[in-house]
C-alpha cells in the first residue's frame, strides 16, 4: 500500500517534498531527481528553491532526468519540456544545466532516443526520487491507458483528452503535438522513491484508481502499488474518492518521528 498524505493545499505538499529532497541531497550530494513538468509540481519546486537558498544547500552535483518530452517541437520552443525544465526547475534551484537531461524529441533521432535515455539513467545509477503527477486519464508521465506496466522509454501517441488538457500551454489546441517520448512505467518503477502529487476534484477518480483500484494497464497510475516506497500527497478534493481515507489520516498522524516521507 502506498503511503497517502492528505494536506491542506499545494503549498503544504511543497513543504513536504522540499524536506524530503533536501534530506536526500544532504545525504547524497550527487542525488538523481526525476523531474515532472506541468502545473502540479510547481509549488514543490518553489518550496525547494526557497529551502536551497535559505539553508545554502550545495546542489551543484545534483543530477536530473525529466519524465518526458514532446516529439517534433522546434528546438527552443518555450513549451518544449527542455525549456520548461530549465525555466521552472534548473534556474530557480540553481542546478547545473549540463547535469539535467530531457528525452530527445527530435524526429531525426527518435528511433534510438528511448534506448539512449535508458542508458543515460542507468549510467547515472538510477533515479533516487521521482516526482510524479497524474492525469485525468490516469496517466503517469505520458503513459496513457493501455501502456505496458513493464514499458521503458519510448514514443507514445497522446490521447485527445491529454492534448486538450495541455492546450492551455499553447496558442491553439492544434499546436499540441500528437506524439511524445516518455519514460515507461517500468522505467518509473525503477526509481528508489516515488512521490505522486495530485490536487483538485478533477483528479479524485484517477487518485482512487491509482491507490486503491486493481493494478491494470488501463489505469497506468495503479502501477505505483507495485513499488516498495511510494508517497502520494493529495489535497482534500483529490482524496475525496478514497475508501480508506480515515486509515491514511490515522497512519500519518501516528507515523514515527524518525521516518520521513
Automatic annotation (TrEMBL):
What class does this enzyme belong to in the EC scheme?
hydrolase
**How is this protein named in the record?**
Glucosamine-6-phosphate deaminase
**NCBIfam families in the record:** PRK00443.1-4
GO biological process terms on file: carbohydrate metabolic process; glucosamine catabolic process; N-acetylglucosamine catabolic process; N-acetylneuraminate catabolic process
Keyword field: Allosteric enzyme, Carbohydrate metabolism, Hydrolase
What's a single GO CC term here?
Answer: cytoplasm
Family membership noted in the UniProt record = Belongs to the glucosamine/galactosamine-6-phosphate isomerase family. NagB subfamily.
Where are the residues marked Part of the allosteric site as a site?
A: 147, 154, 156-157
Instruction: State the gene name recorded for this protein.
Output: nagB
Position of the signal peptide: none
Q: Where is the Glucosamine/galactosamine-6-phosphate isomerase domain?
A: 12-226
**Catalytic reaction(s) noted:** alpha-D-glucosamine 6-phosphate + H2O = beta-D-fructose 6-phosphate + NH4(+)
Biological or metabolic pathway of the protein: Amino-sugar metabolism; N-acetylneuraminate degradation; D-fructose 6-phosphate from N-acetylneuraminate: step 5/5
Q: What is its EC number?
A: 3.5.99.6
| Entry annotation: catalytic residues | 68, 139, 144
Job of this protein: Catalyzes the reversible isomerization-deamination of glucosamine 6-phosphate (GlcN6P) to form fructose 6-phosphate (Fru6P) and ammonium ion.
Question: PANTHER family, alphabetically?
Answer: GLUCOSAMINE-6-PHOSPHATE ISOMERASE
Looking up Pfam families in the UniProt record yields: Glucosamine_iso (PF01182)
Q: How is its activity regulated?
A: Allosterically activated by N-acetylglucosamine 6-phosphate (GlcNAc6P).
GO function terms (MF aspect)? glucosamine-6-phosphate deaminase activity; identical protein binding
Amino acid at each position: 500500500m502506498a503511503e497517502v498524505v492528505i494536506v491542506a493545499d499545494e503549498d503544504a505538499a511543497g513543504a513536504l517534498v522540499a524536506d524530503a529532497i533536501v534530506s536526500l541531497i544532504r545525504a547524497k550530494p550527487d542525488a538523481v531527481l526525476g523531474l515532472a513538468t506541468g502545473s502540479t509540481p510547481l509549488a514543490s519546486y518553489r518550496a525547494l528553491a526557497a529551502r536551497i537558498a535559505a539553508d545554502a544547500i550545495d546542489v551543484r552535483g545534483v543530477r536530473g532526468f525529466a519524465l518526458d518530452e514532446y516529439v517534433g517541437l522546434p528546438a527552443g520552443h518555450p513549451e518544449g519540456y527542455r525549456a520548461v525544465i530549465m525555466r521552472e526547475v534548473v534556474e530557480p534551484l540553481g542546478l547545473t544545466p549540463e547535469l539535467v537531461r530531457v528525452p530527445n524529441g527530435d524526429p531525426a533521432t527518435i528511433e534510438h532516443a528511448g534506448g539512449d535515455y535508458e542508458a543515460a539513467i542507468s549510467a547515472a545509477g538510477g533515479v533516487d526520487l521521482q516526482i510524479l503527477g497524474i492525469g485525468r486519464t490516469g496517466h503517469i508521465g505520458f503513459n496513457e491507458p493501455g501502456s505496458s506496466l513493464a514499458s521503458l522509454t519510448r514514443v507514445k501517441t497522446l490521447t485527445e483528452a491529454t492534448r486538450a488538457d495541455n492546450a492551455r500551454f499553447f496558442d491553439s489546441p492544434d499546436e499540441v503535438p500528437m506524439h511524445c517520448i516518455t519514460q515507461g512505467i517500468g522505467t518509473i518503477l525503477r526509481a528508489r522513491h516515488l512521490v505522486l502529487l495530485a490536487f483538485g476534484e478533477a483528479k479524485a477518480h484517477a487518485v482512487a484508481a491509482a491507490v486503491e483500484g486493481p493494478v491494470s494497464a488501463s489505469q497506468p497510475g495503479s502501477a505505483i502499488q507495485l513499488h516498495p516506497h511510494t508517497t502520494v500527497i493529495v489535497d482534500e478534493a483529490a482524496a475525496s474518492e478514497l475508501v480508506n481515507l480515515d486509515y491514511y489520516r490515522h497512519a500519518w498522524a501516528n507515523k514515527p518521528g524518525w521516518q520521513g516521507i
